[in-house]
Amino acid sequence: MGDITAGFIGFGLIGGSIARAMRELYPNATLVAYNHNKDVPNKSLELAQEEQILDKIYTDLSVGFSKCDIIFLCAPVLTNIEYLKQLKSIIKPSCILTDVGSVKGNIHEAVTNLDLDANFIGGHPMAGSEKAGFINSNSKLLENAYYILTPTAKTSDKKLEFIYSLVEDMGALPLILDYMDHDNIVAAISHVPHIIAASLVNLVKKSDSGDEKMRALAAGGFKDITRIASSSPIMWQNICLTNTKSIKGFLDQYILSLQDISSALNDPNEDFLYEVFDTAREYRDSIPNKAIGMMAKIHEVYLDIIDEAGAIATIATILASNNISIKNIGIIHNREFQDGVLRIEFYNEESSAQAVDLLRKYRYTIYER
């Protein structure tokens, strides 16, 4: 893949992170990007060129993108669809068109209508940050993140293998799904939660007193479950307008579940209320370690640590001196555990078990999940 030419339309956090990863992986690749505004320089693209991430910036798609082997559509979903119409007469037959949007239905329908099924493979890197833009991009952003691929009925094995290998090379975990299944899944686990978070924040804002006591005391659990409400309003407006059917289906179910809880509070129904929290607790606790279909099991442990300099380094040294490799490590910033809880992920179950035994000998309090 070293001599490929990759084009980017839209160059924010995800597009920039993909470009950074590709530059590190394939230093001889040609990476180009599109500036839709001919009269106004794009500071992000110019910065990327200064950092030698991008080779060239074009203001004319027909000039710069006709030789691309793969084109990443990294603009909002509805904008990406408009670009497909322009690219149809420009790209070479072997070119792969892919996007990074979290909704696949609309763009797949547009691809079919434009007879681009043989070129298109939908993509959704399930990674991100509250911080947007190329300035916050990172070549490691996609590492260990699921990267959903949604091929069409006309996608060739060669094209699918190409992008699958590319995703793996970037350190992400490729997973092939039907685009309709994808939209239902992300509606339930991502889109509806964002709506709930935003509506909860707005509820507190509207309910707050003039001296803003709620705002002053909003911390801990409230900030944990509403963190995602800080995301881009334009992006989430686009998502709601493009994955409407799936979102509405799950949102209506959620509203009914809230009505059931409201009724249980009126009765009051003690058993029902207990079941709500107990069922949720059991399922939530099962999420990190469950292997589902193609998704690999995660081997992780949690432990209390003292909040002092060198605490993490001490644990890492203990494990390294016993030849136990760490896949990922970091502090958990929520109230599910006591303060100062460290999450350590390992490459396999054997390493995880060895680490638990070893750290317990050093009198660390371990939480296995």
From TrEMBL:
Protein origin, superkingdom: Bacteria
Segments forming domain Prephenate/arogenate dehydrogenase: 4-295
Alphabetized UniProt keyword annotations: Amino-acid biosynthesis, Aromatic amino acid biosynthesis, NAD, Oxidoreductase, Tyrosine biosynthesis
Enzyme Commission number(s): 1.3.1.12
InterPro entries associated with the record: 6-PGluconate_DH-like_C_sf, ACT-like_dom_sf, ACT_dom, NAD(P)-bd_dom_sf, PDH_C, PDH_N, Preph/Arog_dehydrog, Prephen_DH
Residue ranges annotated for the ACT domain, each copy included: 300-369
Gene3D superfamilies: 6-phosphogluconate dehydrogenase C-terminal like domain, NAD(P)-binding Rossmann-like Domain
Pfam families the UniProt entry points to: PDH_C, PDH_N
Catalytic activity: prephenate + NAD(+) = 3-(4-hydroxyphenyl)pyruvate + CO2 + NADH
Pathway recorded for this protein: Amino-acid biosynthesis; L-tyrosine biosynthesis; (4-hydroxyphenyl)pyruvate from prephenate (NAD(+) route): step 1/1
GO biological process: tyrosine biosynthetic process
A molecular function GO annotation: NAD+ binding
Family designation: Belongs to the prephenate/arogenate dehydrogenase family.
Protein name, as recorded: Prephenate dehydrogenase
Record organism: Mobilisporobacter senegalensis
Lineage: Bacteria, Bacillati, Bacillota, Clostridia, Lachnospirales
